[in-house]
Design goal:
Layout: H1 9-38, H2 44-49, H3 55-64, H4 71-83, H5 97-132, H6 137-150, H7 154-168, H8 188-217, H9 220-227, H10 232-260, H11 264-269, H12 275-285, H13 288-316, H14 318-323
């Protein structure tokens, strides 16, 4: 059965435009990353030469690392390597940049998975609950708590939880120092970081779902469904919830992007050897290839996640997409 009606042609055209835009954004990310890392202060050759560098040694290092070549030549070589999956080689250690990603991605991905797993049911559930009892005690309680928690900075909340649960009550370890990348063998060390990572996203998701549910339940099509005698639960979950979730999907994509691109504050606070820690160390050592490789991976991740979120939101609310 052919499905080439007018409802499908705009969808194909919109998807093609979004894919082209994503490709252009990825190319822009690559160029911007190179330009910004070139603008970093300091000289990698001087940093590698030691505390009392000899000019001849600095020149030799620059030649060996290819730093004496023009910037546009290095850009062309770097982008050619990216096209073949080669992110370059660390100036500080000589290791491939991909090995730094492999080392740091495990802890970061674990934290992201442990955060997103309870985030979706908590955020959606609390948002639906608040919308169902709009203006009443459950709604006021959920709204007040989420607003209060969201207002506390991550570093301050993390320090507070360490002081309370690790130092005073001694229920949990204060950091993951000494556990390396095998964090699953020490689940107690993950409790506080996951709580911090979950705190603000669950507040944002709850408030978005609440607002979307209230708008959807007050819409003409929800009123029409109730006039037809459709049960309230079905109106809420089959008709209103998909429209309320559409903006929440995009917020969820931004949250996953934030989690996967190295949550630097939390990793630094709890001494977790994830991508955020790798990036901080590379910047401190002026290790340009590692900074560039991580930045490109982060940028591409952002583009892909936002593209996926747009596609899901378009699928959930096709009328909005048609109007756009």
């Amino acid at each position: 059965m052919r499905r080439d009606g007018p409802a499908f042609t705009p969808l194909r055209s919109w998807t093609a435009r979004r894919l082209l835009l994503g490709t252009a954004q990825t190319a822009a990310v690559v160029l911007l990353v190179f330009v910004l890392t070139e603008a970093l202060p300091g000289d990698a050759a001087v940093a590698l030469a030691g505390d009392q560098p000899d000019p001849a040694r600095i020149a030799a290092i620059r030649e060996a690392m290819g730093l004496d070549r023009p910037a546009y030549v290095r850009l062309l070589d770097w982008t050619a390597g990216l096209a073949h999956g080669d992110l370059g080689t660390s100036l500080a250690s000589g290791r491939p940049v991909s090995s730094y990603l492999a080392d740091g991605y495990g802890p970061t991905l674990l934290l992201a998975a442990l955060t997103v797993t309870p985030l979706v049911p908590l955020g959606v559930g609390l948002g639906v609950l608040a919308a169902r009892y709009e203006g009443r005690l459950p709604d006021r309680l959920v709204s007040s708590v989420t607003l209060g928690v969201y207002a506390v900075p991550e570093f301050a909340l993390g320090t507070l939880l360490i002081t309370l649960f690790a130092l005073r009550l001694e229920w949990l370890p204060p950091t993951a120092l000494g556990y390396g990348t095998d964090l699953l063998s020490h689940p107690a060390a993950l409790v506080l970081p996951v709580l911090i990572l979950l705190s603000r996203p669950v507040c944002s998701l709850t408030r978005l779902v609440r607002a979307g549910m209230i708008d959807a339940l007050a819409s003409p099509y929800a009123a029409q469904a109730r006039r037809y005698g459709i049960a309230g639960a079905r109106v809420r979950y089959a008709h209103a919830l998909p429209n309320a979730i559409a903006p929440a999907v995009q917020q969820l994509a931004r949250t996953v992007d934030w989690l996967l691109c190295g949550v630097i504050v939390v990793e630094a606070l709890y001494v977790i050897p994830g991508l955020g820690t790798v990036l901080m160390n590379a910047v401190a050592e002026r290790d340009v290839p590692v900074v560039q490789g991580l930045a490109v991976v982060f940028g591409v991740t952002t583009v892909v996640l936002n593209l996926g979120a747009d596609l899901v939101a378009r699928r959930l609310t096709p009328r909005a997409g048609m109007a756009a």
